[in-house]
Design brief:
Keywords: Membrane, Transmembrane, Transmembrane helix
GO cellular component, one term: membrane
Number of strands: 0
Strand content: under 5%
Number of helices: 8
Transmembrane segments: 6-26, 38-56, 68-89, 101-124, 130-151, 163-183, 189-207, 219-237
Shape: globular
GO molecular function, one term: metal ion transmembrane transporter activity
Number of domains: 1
Order of helices and strands: HHHHHHHH
Radius of gyration: 18 Å
Organism: Aquabacterium commune
Length: 241
């Protein structure tokens, strides 16, 4: 019988596979900006539902105000630091060779953090962790699609492109492995800090990454509805679980 750690890693293979699948779609046929925006809105709704329906109730149940404050500060600070470093490396790339080192470094960090967040979810319970796997699967599907599109525009061949995406996808498994190993058995203030950290990081992902980029495309009713469809889809799944 598989151990809890092995079960977590097995579930994490789903978002890893979704990353590769998104990359494969982009390599063979790049979706239109409208389709990508719809996917981003839907994924944002799903991730926000995971935060609102699972993480926030767990944080309320723990009832550790200091832990909430510390966790939110750490989560927001980490995401802002990642953004700052990524912007500087990308600017350096553009000023020199026009390479993709900055983009790939930023994506690698993002994917690893997603894995850690899955570990945080499982620290709160199997239900929370599983729903976070579902939510982040959609986010990583889009991320794989987006990165592969960018690499294709830089004249990367299909094989090299897919190999890069596959390598990056392994980081979500590594992050989840580390997260579950370090965070398993947490309780009290320590658990509250990690839950709040996860909630802040996911909210940043929704507001500052998914929706910000999605709004670069002209809004249509279909695009707007996709966000709420994503939210209610995961929320209904939570109610039926």
């Amino acid at each position: 019988m598989a151990t809890p750690h092995e079960q977590i890693l097995a579930l994490t293979l789903i978002p890893a596979a979704a990353t590769i699948f998104g990359g494969a779609i982009a390599v063979w046929r790049t979706p239109s900006e409208t389709v990508r925006s719809v996917i981003q809105h839907f994924a944002a709704g799903v991730v926000l539902a995971a935060v609102a329906g699972e993480l926030l109730p767990e944080m309320t149940r723990e009832h550790q105000p200091l832990g909430v404050v510390i966790g939110f500060i750490l989560g927001v600070a980490l995401m802002l630091c990642v953004k700052l470093v990524a912007e500087r490396v990308e600017a350096r790339d553009e000023a020199t060779s026009g390479g993709k080192v900055g983009l790939l470094a930023a994506v690698a960090i993002d994917i690893f953090i997603d894995g850690l967040l899955i570990g945080v979810g499982f620290a709160a319970g199997a239900r929370v962790g599983t729903l976070l796997v579902i939510a982040l699967t959609l986010e990583l599907l889009f991320l794989g699609l987006s990165v592969a599109t960018s690499l294709a525009q830089a004249n990367w061949g299909r094989g090299r492109n897919l190999l890069c995406i596959a390598s990056l996808s392994g980081l979500v498994v590594a992050g989840a492995s580390l997260g579950s190993a370090l965070l398993g058995g947490l309780s009290g203030v320590a658990l509250e800090i990690m839950l709040s950290f996860g909630a802040a990081a996911l909210m940043y992902l929704v507001v500052e990454e998914l929706l910000t980029e999605a709004h670069e495309v002209q809004e249509t009713p279909l695009i707007t509805v996709a966000f709420f469809a994503g939210f209610v889809s995961l929320y209904l799944l939570e109610l039926m679980a």
